[in-house]
Structure to design on (205 residues):
């Protein structure tokens, strides 16, 4: 397959790359659209994302829409040809946090398109990517591929609204008008907040 492979800050190369095949319980996805996250920009511009410093080439990207290209043994929740998006974070499923239903706190979580694990985990800036079956979420027909690729950042915004305890009928101030901030503002309005204000120190935003 063809993939956009990160080598170093300022150095991403479109190269031929071994196409992955799904193991049992895994799904091979054919990428239709992929977003560029702030974390991808950090890798490209600064050579790291927080404490995640790449030590070898890998494929960036974790916001995407796709269609199921192949399924591994034992997969029954998706079918070949189905349009999906995916949760890019894969918790281990066996630690105490996961067993308690708190997979978001799993210390063994791996993230698509991230140098936070060794070996690094290839992401979605490629023709194909592999995910575990339970990471997949079906996209309805009314959500096109471009919007489908934005489901992951939208989920972050919706989680912020949920953590705020509900915003209906309340005044809301959002600090920062980046992608997540704007999605939070839009979600707050959709949930009945009024007025909704947003601040930003970068004039272009």
């Amino acid at each position: 397959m063809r993939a956009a492979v990160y080598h170093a800050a300022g150095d991403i190369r479109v190269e031929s790359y071994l196409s992955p095949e799904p193991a049992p319980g895994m799904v091979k996805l054919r990428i239709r659209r992929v977003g560029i996250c702030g974390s991808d920009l950090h890798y490209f511009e600064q050579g790291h994302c927080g404490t995640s410093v790449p030590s070898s080439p890998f494929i960036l990207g974790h916001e995407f829409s796709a269609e199921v290209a192949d399924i591994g043994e034992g997969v029954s929740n998706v079918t070949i040809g189905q349009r999906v998006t995916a949760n890019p974070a894969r918790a281990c499923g066996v630690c105490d946090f996961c067993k308690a239903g708190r997979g978001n706190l799993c210390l063994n979580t791996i993230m698509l398109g991230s140098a936070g694990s060794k070996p690094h985990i290839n992401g979605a800036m490629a023709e194909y990517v592999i995910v575990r079956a339970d990471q997949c979420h079906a996209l309805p027909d009314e959500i096109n591929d471009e919007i489908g690729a934005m489901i992951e950042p939208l989920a972050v915004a919706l989680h912020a609204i949920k953590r705020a305890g509900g915003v209906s009928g309340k005044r809301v101030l959002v600090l920062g008008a980046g992608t997540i901030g704007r999605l939070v503002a839009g979600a707050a309005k959709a949930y009945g907040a009024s007025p909704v204000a947003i601040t930003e120190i970068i004039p272009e935003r």
Notes: The longest strand covers residues 26-34.
